[in-house]
Amino acid sequence: MDAGDIDGFTKMQKAYDSLMKSGKFTAAQNKGESGNVIDSIGELVALCEREGFIPRYYVDTPNDKVDRTIQDLQTYTQTLINEEANLGTMIESALKKIEADKEREAQVDVDDIDEDLEE
Asked: 54: which of 33, 84, 88, 114 is 20 to 30 A away, CA to CA?
């Protein structure tokens, strides 16, 4: 629309609408299929007034790939911390190497400045 191509916009809008309807991505199509979804503030308020609280729904298994990835990372981190006996030493040696590299870089910079001053 910014470019002034109204015909192109109209065609793209029609294509978008038809794809949304054929894929059943619209809210009206999804609401009729599953009655256990809260998709508005009014329904949430009605649930709170009816139940007196919002129940917590806990699912014991991961829902999708992201949940499984997060669970894997948490398990890996817990195993790394609990079972890696040499972890503290590895971290300390890495920090010492980083500090030594910084000192070496600072010394090289000072040497370059001294050479430039001599010239």
From this structure: 33
